[in-house]
């Protein structure tokens, strides 16, 4: 039987670690984020919050971080981007599960608490949430659509690439890392590979995460330079994931091919939304073709996908789609 001294030397493992990367985040948004993590129904020893300061140079942000509740661990590092910050926080996480939360977002406690109840009861490798941009309506019922593996979930659904949509068992989360040097859609690679490694995956369809879109965020920047980098980073991710497909078999391979096809459709739609010239569009499609990403696979994943695949193959229809998207 363990003595009291043994227990004090080996404190209970937290149920859940929140990893929050921070870089010059507006202080009021950061405070609201941390407050929401502390508001969910977790006992003191069940919750761990790791804030990773990615070399913030904003004095107000640094002051706020220095005065956070002592229960919140703050890691300070040089500025290397959100991917490296998430990897650093994950490496220090002690929780059985981990969730990534962006510092300008919040959890919705009443809805998140229902997910925690399901997590404790079902103990999956992955619990899938939904996100909203503002809380509306009453709290919906908790669902537990169960899949034997993350690959089966990815094969049957249009998954969301945001890493903050998932509560993940820590040993599964650590089997892959976020890519350094990719600024946009950096979590697409991590999410796909994480799901391929996961066993039991439960889709709750619970809108428990509030994604706050604002001009200062990376995705809120609308400059031409940023738009070009988004397209380049997305193409890099497409090539990376597509090159993984031949290394897989069976359901995992089919699941990743569906995910790559979905992301390629998104890539093309976002490209059309930028109103490219016909030559630019042809050049981008030639890049996709060379990387064996075009034409899109002849699969009936969804009605939208089937129609888009048919239209994008025709040059005249591509031009018309570009006019409609702009």
Task: Describe the protein's architecture and organization.
47% of the residues lie in helices and 16% in strands. By secondary structure, it is of the alpha/beta class. Strands 1, 2, 3, 4, 5, 6, 7, 8 and 9 form a nine-stranded mixed sheet that branches. Helix 6 packs across helix 8 and helix 6 crosses helix 10 (250-273). It is globular. The model has no long low-confidence stretch (mean pLDDT 90).
Tell me the layout of helices and strands:
Blueprint: H1 4-9, E1 16-22, H2 27-39, E2 47-54, H3 59-66, E3 72-77, H4 82-92, E4 97-100, E5 106-107, H5 109-122, E6 126-132, E7 145-147, H6 150-156, E8 166-169, H7 170-173, H8 186-197, E9 201-210, H9 224-244, H10 250-273, H11 278-290, H12 303-312, H13 315-325
Parallel strand pairs: 1-2, 1-4, 2-3, 6-9
Antiparallel strand pairs: 4-8, 5-9, 6-8, 7-9
Helix pairs in contact: 6-8, 6-10, 8-9, 9-10, 10-13
Write down the overall mean pLDDT. 90
Helix content: 40-55%
* Low-pLDDT regions: none
Q: What structural class do helix, strand and pairing data support?
A: alpha/beta
Tally the helices: 13
The total beta strand count reads 9
End-to-end span in angstroms?
69 Å
Radius of gyration: 21 Å
Task: Summarize the helix and strand pattern as letters.
Answer: HEHEHEHEEHEEHEHHEHHHHH
């Amino acid at each position: 039987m363990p003595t009291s001294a043994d227990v004090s030397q080996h404190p209970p493992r937290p149920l859940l670690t929140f990893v929050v990367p921070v870089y010059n985040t507006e202080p009021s948004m950061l405070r609201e984020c941390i407050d929401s993590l502390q508001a969910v129904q977790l006992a003191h020893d069940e919750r761990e919050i790791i804030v990773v300061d990615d070399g913030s140079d904003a004095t107000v942000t640094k002051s706020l971080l220095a005065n956070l509740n002592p229960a919140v661990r703050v890691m300070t590092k040089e500025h290397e981007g959100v991917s490296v910050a998430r990897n650093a926080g994950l490496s220090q996480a002690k929780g059985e599960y981990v969730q990534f939360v962006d510092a300008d977002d919040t959890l919705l406690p009443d809805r998140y608490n229902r997910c925690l109840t399901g997590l404790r009861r079902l103990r999956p490798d992955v619990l899938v949430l939904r996100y909203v941009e503002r809380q509306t309506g009453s709290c919906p019922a908790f669902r537990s659509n169960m899949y034997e593996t993350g690959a089966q979930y990815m094969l049957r659904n249009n998954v969301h690439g945001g890493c903050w949509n998932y509560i993940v068992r820590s040993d599964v989360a650590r089997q892959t890392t976020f890519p350094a040097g990719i600024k946009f859609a950096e979590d697409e690679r991590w999410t796909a590979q994480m799901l391929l490694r996961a066993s039991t995956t439960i889709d709750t369809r619970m809108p428990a995460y509030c994604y706050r879109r604002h001009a200062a965020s990376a995705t809120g920047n609308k400059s031409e330079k940023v738009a070009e980098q988004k397209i380049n980073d997305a193409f890099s991710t497409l090539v990376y994931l597509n090159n993984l497909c031949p290394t897989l078999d069976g359901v995992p391979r089919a699941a990743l091919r569906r995910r790559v096809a979905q992301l390629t459709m998104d890539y093309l739609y976002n490209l059309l939304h930028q109103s490219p010239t016909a030559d630019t569009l042809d050049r981008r499609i030639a890049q996709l073709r060379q990387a064996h990403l075009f034409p899109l696979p002849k699969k009936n994943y969804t009605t939208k996908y089937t129609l888009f695949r048919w239209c994008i193959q025709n040059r005249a229809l591509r031009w018309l789609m570009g006019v409609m998207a702009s």
